[in-house]
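Model it.
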Amino acid sequence: MSGSVFFLHMAGAVALLLWATRMVRTGVERAYGNLLRQRLRQTLGNPILAALTGLALSIALQSSTAVTLLIGSFAGLGIVTGLSGILAVRGAEVGSAFVVKILSFDLTLLVPLCLLFGTAIFLATERRQWRQFGRILVGVGLLILSLEMMGQASEPLRQSTIVPLIVGYLSGDPLTAFLLAAVVTYLFHSSIAAVLLLTTFAARGIVSPDLGIVMVLGVNLGSSFIAPMLTRNSPPAYRVVPLGNLLMRGLGSVVLLCCFVFFSPTLEMLGSDPADRIIHAHIAFNVLILLAGIPLSRLILRATEAIVALQSGKGDEEADEESSLALSESSALDASALDNPQQALANVTRETVRMCETVEFMLCRILELYEKADRRSIDALASLDDTVDRRHAAIKLYLARITRHDMSEEEAGRCQELLGVCIKLEQVGDIIVRNMLAHVQKKMDRGVEFTAEGWRELSSFHASVLANARLAFNLLVTQDTETARELVMEKDRLRDVEKETSQRHFERLRQGAEQSLETSSIHLDTIRDLKQINSLLATFAYPVLEERGLLSGSRLKSA
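Modeled.
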C-alpha cells in the first residue's frame, strides 16, 4: 500500500471516529441534556459528588471538553463554585479515560446490532427522545466500526521501512514526541480519538509502550488546551474552570514527563499488553491528577482567578457595558441592499436570527434566576428586552422599505413571515421580562422555595420549551418540513403535560404541602407563561406547513 493510500484510509477512519463520537454526544445532549444539567446542578455543591458526576457525564457525552465547557458556564453564572467546578472537570477527565478502556474491548458484534436497532428506532417514530436514542445507537456502532477501520488501515505499517525510522527518532527524542501528540490531539479536539489511535499503533507493534506513554502525556497536554481556547473570548468568570483544568492537567503532564524520562520506571504494573499499558497509563495519570487536585484545588483556583483577572484587564461592569453596546450597534440591515429584495430579505433573516439568539439567552437565563437571583442579574436580563425591542423596530422599518420595491409573490410571503416571527419574538421577550421576572422578584422578596417535586416539574417543562425554541429558531433558516411537524406535535404534547403538571400541583395542595401553598401562584403562573411562549414559537412552523399543504384549515370537526 502506498503512503498516500494509507493516509487516505487512516484519515477516513479517524474522520469516522470523530463524527461518530459527535453523533453520540449530540444525541445524548438532545435527548437527555436538560436532565443531565439538572442533575449536575444538584450535585456540584459537594466536591466529591461533583467529581463523580463529572465522571459519569463524561462517559455519557464521550467528551471531557463538553463537560468542561458546561461546568465552566455554570461557574460563570454563579450556579457552582470554582472549586467544585474544577474537581468536577477532573472527574470528567477520568471518565474520558474510562471510555477509552471500554472501547478497547472486542465489541465487533455490537456494530451490526447498534446500526440495525438504531436505524430502526430512528425511522419508526417521530418522538424526539426515541429518535435521539436511535441516533446514539448508530453513533456507537459507527464508533466501533471506525476502530476496526483504523486497525485495518495501520496493518501495512508493520512492513514499512520508513515507519521504524520515524518511531526510532521519536523514541530518542521524547520532547518532540510529547509535543507532537499534544498538537495532534488539539487538532482532533478529542483525547479519546488520539489515545485510541495510539493504542491501535501499539497493538500492532508500531509504537513501543515507552513511547506510547510519553505520547499519552502529550495527549493530555493538548486536550487541556481545547476548552481554554474555546472560551478565550468569554467573560472572565466563564474562563476560570477551563483554565484551572489547564494548570492542573497541563502542568501535571509536564511534571510526569520529566519523572518518566529521568527515572524510567518499570511498566509491569500497567499490564503485559502494549495497548493496555498505554490505556492504563492514561487512566492512572488522570486518577493521580484528580487525587492530587483535592488538596491543591484551592491553590489552583486562586492562581487561576489571578491569571484571569490579569488577562481581562477590565471590570465586569465595563466589559458588560461594552458587550451591550456592541450588540446594540451591530446590524445586518444594510440599506444599500434595499434595491435587491432577495438580498434585503436575507439581511432581515440574519438580523432575525440575532433576535432569536438574544431571546434564547433570556429563556435560558430566566430559570437560573428562579434558583439564584439578585438585583443586578434581574436588571441585566431586563435590559436585554430593550435590545429585542430595538431590533424588532429596526426590522419592521426595514421590511416596510423593502415593500416599496417590486417583489415576487414568494418574496412578499417571506416578508410577511419574517415580520410575524419578529412580532412573536418581541412578545416572548415581553413575557419573560414583564411576567416571569416579576415571579422571580416575588419569590426573592418572599424568601420561599419550591418543593423538590414542583421544581422538577418546572425544570422539565422549561427544558421542553427551550428545546422547542431551538427547533423554531433552526426552522427559521432551514424551512425543514420534518422540523415544522415536530414543532407542532411538541405543542400538542406540552398542552397535555401542562394539564398533568397542574393536576399534580393541586394534589399537593390538597395534601396540605406548606411549600406548595407558599409558591402556588408562582408555580402555576410560570407554567402558564412557558406554555404561552411555546405556543408563540410553534407558530414559526405554520408558514412552512401551509406552503406544503400540510396544515388544516381548522381544528374544529365538521358538523
